[in-house]
User: Fold this.
Amino acid sequence: MEELNDREKRVDILNVVAELTREISITDSLENMIHTFTTRFSEVFPFKHIIIWLFNDELNNLTQAYSTIPGDRTLSLDDDNIVVSAVKENRTIYIPDFSKERRFTPFLEGGLSGIVIPLSSFEKVRGAIHIESHAREYFSENIILYLNVLANQLAVALRNYHLFNRVQSLKNYLDTLIEKVNAIMFVMDSVGRIKRVNEAAEKYTEYSREELYGTLGVNLIASPEKRRAIMAIIPSLRKGEFISGVEVEIATKSGGRRFVLFNFGGILESAGRLKEIIAIGQDITRTKETEMQLMQAEKLALIGQIASSIIHEINNPLALISSYAEVMCMKAESEGRTEDVNKLKVILKNTDRLTKLAQNLMNFVRPGGSELSKINLNEAIEEAVKWVEPMLRKGNIHIVKELGENLPPVKGNKTEIQQIFLNLMSNAIHAMEKKTGKITITTEYVNNGYVAMVITDEGTGIKQQDLKRIFEPFFTTKPAGKGTGLGLSIVQRILERHNARIAVKSKVGVGTSVRVLLPRAEEEGIR
Ligand SMILES: Nc1ncnc2c1ncn2[C@@H]1O[C@H](COP(=O)(O)OP(=O)(O)OP(=O)(O)O)[C@@H](O)[C@H]1O
Ligand SMILES: [Mg+2]
Assistant:
């Protein structure tokens, strides 16, 4: 190997070292790295017997990543040989003459000299370059120097490779975490344009990431005031502050609403400028709804208390006023005082309305617990239809009855079920006031223990935004003095007592269909 000492060869080696360093630092797999290394290596060093050992952290052993010495070997760190010693002690071991060596034997059959250079960087040994020869004292000082330089390069490349792998798997792990976690995540740039979202954010907003990227995050917020409030926290984010517990109502793509509790954080650049805004949110729509229902229930209880005391105060004087007015009206009529008759009729009309309001309030606040028995739904309906007939004559409305045959009896209170029917019919008739058309009353057994009563009208329909409010007490779209807004609240009250359900389908300009499901009575002793 004397020829390696001449100048030209040295330059050549340095070139190869430089090239090799570059090449192995950009390889994507361990196999490619070792392959590139050994190919380049063999171009400058004509060694015939070489093994590249790699240390496996998990198994605590050394395996051959490359070998031109026959045999399949795996070395345990408990073994005693030249390779394990070099790796454990992290030092180059050179045996110029195995025949004079007491401790170590060659791996190569008839090998006379050998060298093992650990591949170590930052005190961590990742393997070794192991070369043997059939010649004595084969490795000059110069060669050993070169080999050390190359081993260093390979060790650094191995370290980088492992670091890169660690970073990559950490990144994959984080990516998966961000994607799959059930928190809504938005990453925005310093002015609030969305840069990245996760699956949950897509699911909750109903927008795809393509639709979201580049748009302003605040645009998802339903109310303009809240938007401004959120914009106002940006200065705090600029200081890198974390702002938690911000409740936001998000407008979804399909026009729905979702309540999300957000935490905001500002990510600063090294220069201290705001780089990204991170918003992590939790869907609290359900909690919010329950909260609102609770408030509603409280409101109802309060209304109930107020109403019952007022009704007491109102009822008696009202009855008095209307009976006196009636007497006076009859008298005036018989005396031919037309003007007085008209005035008295106005009084009577208004007292009637007040009586109806008091009646409705009474029904609304009346405590439940009325007896439930077996009711023939069709009979109850037939009876109640007669009561609404006078109301129909006003308009051009006709009723179509599609009452199911052999319905099982329902479990209920007849008066109350008729009240439900009347309230629903009254709504349907009002909705058709200015129209011609039919109201269809359907009853049927729905085969899961329920009997359905469906009232379908061809009236005005209910606007989407009103639909969720129609059961609220005092919600009405009727002109002042016409509706109390209690009809459906009463219906709902009664249905709760009956363990019944209600569903409303409506289309503006087409009509409304209200479906009430009443539980059937138990089997024995029907009818
Ligand atoms: N069949 C229907 N068609 C169209 N709108 C309806 C129908 N049923 C209910 N609504 C809407 O729901 C609102 C609330 O109904 P609810 O019966 O509770 O009160 P109301 O009818 O306004 O008053 P009241 O029942 O005291 O006459 C109505 O004002 C109306 O806007
Ligand atoms: Mg009504």
